[in-house]
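Escalated from tier 1: iron/sulfur cluster holo job.
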Amino acid sequence: MHPLKDLYLHFPFCTGRCEYCAFVSGPPPLDPLAYIDTLLAEARQHNLTFAPLQTLYCGGGTPGLIGSAGFKALNASGLFTFAQGYEWTVELHPRTVTAELLETLATCGVTRLSIGVQSLDDEVLKFCNRRHTAQEALKAVQLARTFIPDTGIDLIAGLPGVDDTLWQETLARCIDLDLPHLSIYALSIDEGSMWEKRGISPPDAESVCDAIAMASARLAEVGLQRYETSNYAREGYRCQHNLNTWHGGNYAGLGRGAASRIGRMRRAGDGTEEPLNELDDALERALTQLRLDEGFCVAACIERFPCLAPYAKAWATILADFHQHGLLTATYAPTTRGYEILDALERALLECVYTE
Ligand code: SF4
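Tier 2 regenerated the structure:
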């Protein structure tokens, strides 16, 4: 096993609970430094050693809640070093964005920020219990970019109260920010979330697909290319950490709620471990490639995962069929309509394997 080069750190803290979310998270840590010690202990417990990292991703929850002191301690902890050209992303909630924190992050060597904006309508934000206004989010993005230019945002498509007109306006305001990266996720209402308990359901799939197709077209016009199901970037600004995952690479996760994929071992966020057999491991690593605009090459896939060779002919037939129906491009990347039925494509490819 080569030493790991991609690390995800989970910061399971939030100042409140967004109504659609039931992620693992709790109140901000009383002692952020103690949480860094917990991450170090977890790395020791699993005997994890890292090569100089290509990518580090601090996600949440709300990583900003460990504050400047927490990030300084993390950077000085000795847990990782960086390779040339590394990427270090930190997710930020607009309310945690301060000049002091941004200066610390820039000084520590953070290269990339992702700010959870989700909506630019105050009523919608309030209904979601996001705990920030649209104005605060916009100010946070503008301030963040003065310290770390590679700052992107997350939006949610399909939030209650967002009609086509409001969605168009939201996109226009985001485009005006001239960002290098945007993520747009279809609303999902977690089991156990407030909205699930209150019986609020997501809008019908068709209108969410329409909202995403509208976004994809508008963003493409201004040079933000859809490079994955939910992600759009200018040339040179794709998230390398997530690309490693979609390319089927290994990664380690530390922190309550962080998953790992190391060789055949899968460790879930709750710490349970499961070894996969060669075939399941290969399928998992191969099929996430379908989400990317890079296309899917059966021959390259078989070269990398020889155990998938028996399915090459059937896969080629299925992919050609999806291409003929306008769901995949000539290089077998999803078209806009193709993105809407990716699950069906994956199921069709898996059926060839498991119904043999
Ligand atoms: S969506 Fe993010 S910020 Fe909101 S409660 Fe969930 S983890 Fe916290």
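The first strand starts at residue 4 and ends at 11.
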